[in-house]
Design a protein that fits this description.
With about 120 residues, the protein is of the alpha+beta class. The protein has one domain (about 5-120). It is about 35% helix and about 25% strand. The protein contains three helices and five strands. Strands 1-2-5 form a three-stranded antiparallel beta sheet. Strands 3-4 form a two-stranded antiparallel sheet. A hairpin with a 5-residue loop joins strand 1 (about 5-10) and strand 2 (about 15-30). It is elongated and about 60 Å long. The termini are far apart. The chain binds zinc ion.
């Protein structure tokens, strides 16, 4: 079994960039359930809710949805898989780093969600 790692860069308080590695593993993406695509490429939280009106206006909509014609690459993974930190392999010396990485990931996610909602609002 090959060993994977996530490379993580951070700047310390003096602005010096350092690179670290965390043990990682591949998991099936929870956003697209491993399909690698989602409708319109939206994340799980962004899933569109179609109303009867939408279907009335566009008779092909249901067909398009079911056939995957509207599917785009999933925003959260690479071909249905996600490289995540392998918590089983974390050691005391990279636990602190892991916390920093989690924070960086969370910030990135919030930033992406903000960009998406701005796009939807036509900004
Ligand atoms: Zn995915």
């Amino acid at each position: 079994m090959s060993r994977h790692s996530i490379e993580f860069r951070r700047e310390d308080s003096e602005g010096v960039e350092t690179s670290h590695k965390l043990p990682a593993k591949w998991v099936i993406c929870g956003t697209c359930d491993g399909d690698g695509t989602t409708v319109f490429g939206w994340g799980r939280g962004d899933a569109a809710v179609h109303t009867q009106e939408d279907f009335d206006e566009d008779p092909d909509l249901m067909d398009d949805l079911m056939s995957g014609r509207l599917d785009k690459a999933c925003p959260d993974c690479e071909k249905g898989r996600q490289l995540v930190v392998n918590e089983d392999l974390l050691k005391a010396n990279n636990l602190e780093l892991y916390k920093l990485w989690m924070k960086a990931e969370k910030d990135e996610r919030e930033y992406q969600a903000m960009c998406r909602s701005e796009r939807m609002n036509g900004a």
